[in-house]
UniProtKB/TrEMBL annotation:
Superkingdom per UniProt: Bacteria
Keywords: Membrane, Transmembrane, Transmembrane helix
TM spans (from-to): 6-28, 48-67, 79-97, 109-128
Organism: Candidatus Clostridium helianthi
Name this protein carries in UniProt: Uncharacterized protein
Length: 129
């Protein structure tokens, strides 16, 4: 049961991040919350990166749903395991990037807690789901 819950939490946070990236891609003024937080509205070149993150986050969110047996989408279980491991490592980097390296206070104080919560949930998910 715990694996189900933490997998769902990871998926919800990941889908939320996907929506943030989509809105930034479409020109919403949330650029200070992502990608270093240097621009309120991302320049065109950076929007391509944000668009890529949108699709990656959708994919990762689906992997969490399958890993927690919430939804079966047909991914190979070893493939999903690799996705969860890689995303957990990415979240570890995100904690450092969002919490220490960024100059954006919005990214630091809003995104770092989400990264920490999802990092912990992702570890728990990996070992309990």
């Amino acid at each position: 049961m715990i694996g189900y819950i933490v997998s769902l939490i990871c998926a919800i946070i990941t889908f939320g991040m996907a929506l943030l990236q989509l809105s930034i891609t479409l020109g919403a003024p949330f650029g200070e919350y992502a990608l270093g937080g240097t621009s309120k509205v991302l320049p065109q070149k950076m929007r391509l990166i944000s668009c890529t993150f949108f699709f990656v986050f959708i994919f990762v969110g689906m992997a969490y749903l399958q890993w927690g047996n919430i939804l079966s989408i047909g991914f190979n279980s070893m493939f999903v395991k690799i996705i969860i491991i890689v995303n957990t490592l990415f979240l570890g980097y995100a904690i450092i990037g969002n919490g220490i390296l960024t100059k954006s206070k919005k990214e630091k104080y809003v995104m770092t807690p989400f990264s920490i919560i999802q990092f912990i949930c992702s570890i728990v998910t990996f070992f309990t789901a």
